Amino acid sequence: MRPLAITMGDPAGIGGEILLKSWLAGAPPFIAFDDPKRLTELAARLGLPVPIRSIASTSEAVDIAQALPVMPIQLAVPAELGQPNSANAGAITASIRAAVTMALSGEVGAVVTNPISKAVLYEAGFPHPGHTEFLGELTGAIPVMMLASPMLRVVPVTVHVSLRRALDELTTEKIVTASRVTASALRHDFGVAHPRLAIAGLNPHAGEGGALGAEEASIIEPAMAVLRAEGITVSGPWPPDTMFTPAARASYDAAICMYHDQALIPLKTLDMTHGVNVTLGLPIVRTSPDHGTAFDIAATGRADPASLLAAMWLAAEIADRRTRTG
After folding, report:
1. Which of 109, 140, 221, 262 could be disulfide-bonded to 2 (CB atoms 3.0-4.6 Å)?
2. pLDDT value at position 210?
3. Is the domain of 85 the same as that of 173?
4. Is the pTM of this model over 0.85?
5. Are residues 196 and 223 in the same domain?
6. Mapped to the 3 state alphabet, what secondary structure does 206-251 carry?
7. How many domains does the structure of the chain reveal?
């Protein structure tokens, strides 16, 4: 199996800590795109017995069980845990670019991104709303964000925009595109032979027949008609307040939600520990933990690597399935 590429994330956050802990926990083979000096010092500070080895190419990553291989990405200034610095924004994005480039060339099997701080990158002039959109530019694809756990999979149609803007941007075409990509990914990446999509309503009670909003009839139901005509199994529009109960979740494979928090609140409430961010629609496999940089605990040594480990194992599983099925 080709190793995974794990990006730096924000060096002031918990990314380095959960990376080191994941190596100790027996993660799938991976290469870190990071600053070796930073990781060496962090391991010593946290008392984690992780030997670090700088490499110049993936062919040197042959002894992954003996040392954590690192493709060097130099920081502009030393990282201070809990104190983000936009001077290191270039290193953060360089780590992502390098990992994606190697995934596109086939040198690594998948990319797993450690958490970034969008505010830190914005301060340095980063032009994208987040990781997902940046990956779309790097790969020339239209990305779709999924959050997945053993309990639930959700896809927001509108993502990193304000709620007011999300309402303006929601269209039939966007719902159709997100649903098509999701159905395809469920088949090819998750092994779901006949995907079932639950389409969320936008308004309370899914509009209550138009009394509480017209978007279900004017935007969502036309999208469902298009999807059904294409042979995609959809149900809804579901009232958003009842579609995430255990009985409801058993009836679908993924929920298509109209805006960011409508999707992420139930997923993170149900299973924050094992939640994974998966970018669908890319020519490469990309996953990420479903949490952020956690600057508030970055210097305490209390970060839990469970979500990063889940992201790594899911990335390896999807990459293996793509290799086997072509």
Report:
1. 109
2. 87
3. no
4. yes
5. yes
6. HHHHHCCCCHHHHHHHHHHHHHHHCCCEEEEEECCCCCCCHHHHCC
7. 2
